[in-house]
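Predicting holo structure, 1,3-dihydroxyacetonephosphate bound.
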Amino acid sequence: MKKIYLYGNWKMNMTVAETKKFFDGFESAYAPYKNDAGLEVGVFAPFTSLWALADCAKKAGIVFGAENVYSEASGAFTGEVSIPMLQEIGIKYVILGHSERRHIFNEPDEMIAKKVKAVLNANMIPVLCYGETLDERESGHTFDVMGRQLSTAIDGLNPDDVKKIIYAYEPVWAIGTGKSASSEQAQEVCGWSRNLLGIKDVVILYGGSVKASNAKELLSMQDIDGALVGGAALKPESFLDIYKAFKA
Ligand code: 13P
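Done. Tokens:
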């Protein structure tokens, strides 16, 4: 049985108090799976909650990370957070290129590529998101768009570094809409991505309205190694129910 990565992206949710409360309930929800080598759970929180997340997640024995970072180590970049700042509080994983960064904050492919390189150079692990909008899918440009996003992000990296990245295919039209990609659509893109990356055992997640009711279908697909979960990751039960449904 393949290992499943169940990662939660809290987005701009969860204060320090809410983070602590989440972990009050997490322990019992996670207890049945804690020693399950077939599951890796991770949580990604906003910067202000990272200190609390690091503390709670270490105790719970799960992966934890940030939702973004800037590529420069220090300097005149008002409002940004650097890699050394994250490292100081024990952060090893960082989501990069989420569609909300790409589309709401206009982060271009080249900026995301710089971030990917900086994070890898710091011996940290990028969780690189990519995916097409509805317009791009409907006009037949899904694979051009994703080819550009992925190729720019890995340009100039050696195969070892390409393999260290965790990839997350997130079709923009499926994020927060309740409308997941079908398991066939998600499989098609994840399989295509694995070929493009040219490395058989890279980790590729699917994200976009993943919940217990569609988990089994999606996570059973050959090229889908796990899920990057938004809404359903805000409560320990709905989050872990995704794995429970996969196992059932
Ligand atoms: P939802 O699960 O809320 O659709 O969000 C997915 C996502 O964007 C995870 O990064």
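The mean pLDDT is 97.
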